[in-house]
Amino acid sequence: MISTYIPKNFYYHKSNLTTTVDRYTNRFQPSIFIKYNWYPYFSSLIEHESCITLTNSRCWSSRSELNTKWPNGKQREQGIGFGQITRAYTQSGVIRLDVLTDLKKRYPSELNGLTWGNIKDKPQLQMRAIILLWSDNFNRLPSHIPDFDKLAMADSAYNGGYGYILKDRKTCGLKANCNPDLWFNNVETINNRGNKILYGNRTANMINRHHVKDVLLDRMGKYYTIDWD
């Protein structure tokens, strides 16, 4: 269902978003997109990641948090903030994924001062981390891919990792009538993640494909109605 309601917290963080986008989107490889496209995209991404419902107090909040547990009760995954910056653990409690630590290794000066201990209280640095992480994926995609398809692939990579985009594009290229440079009805039809049910009777592939549809097709449009000046 297409959503039209703009969460109240959006207006509180709007200037942070636009300032950060203006400062860091010059890191993206050349694109026809301009800031009036990037503002709605990142707004939609943040809404998808942080909002359990559009009226929840943690919607569009740097303190939004999602936690999942293993059957043995130990922490499985923790996502925090606007973009659900994530760390995940094995069933024995060993960290297997730490997005924040990996980002800080790549961008030590830009993310200096951001830690797991204070991340909820650093909305500006959170916003910066989202754009830096996202631009890494966008810039690794070939420049000849049409912009909206590249936007979709980068969104898929933000949710599920860039490695799967590589696999999906390769598989698509080997399949009849599948164009690896197009997302919709092409790369999106590929499933390299398997059919194991994860959350809510959905597989990892179903979650990933829904992420792209929800961000780009169901939520982003309403943010074009915002006066960004």
What does this structure look like?
By secondary structure, the protein is an alpha+beta fold. The chain is built from seven helices and six strands. The chain has helices at 8-24, 35-50, 99-106, 123-140, 147-160, 162-173, 204-219; strands spanning 65-69, 75-80, 85-89, 95-98, 197-199, 202-203. The strands form two sheets. A four-stranded antiparallel β-sheet has the order 1-2-3-4. A two-stranded antiparallel sheet has the order 5-6. Helix 1 packs across helix 2, helix 2 (35-50) packs across helix 7 (204-219) and helix 5 (147-160) packs across helix 6. The longest helix is centred in the middle third of the chain and has 18 residues, at 123-140. The chain is globular, with a radius of gyration of 17 Å. It starts with 7 loop residues before the first helix and ends in a 10-residue tail after the last helix.
The helix content is 40-55%
List low-confidence stretches.
none
Number of helices: 7
Secondary structure category? alpha+beta
Strand content: 5-15%
Largest sheet: 4 strands, antiparallel
Assembly level: single chain
What is the helix/strand order? HHEEEEHHHHEEH
Strand order of the largest sheet: 1-2-3-4
Average pLDDT, rounded to a whole number, is: 93
Please tell me what the overall shape is.
globular
Gyration radius, in Å? 17 Å
Cα-to-Cα separation, first versus last residue: 29 Å
The count of β-strands is: 6
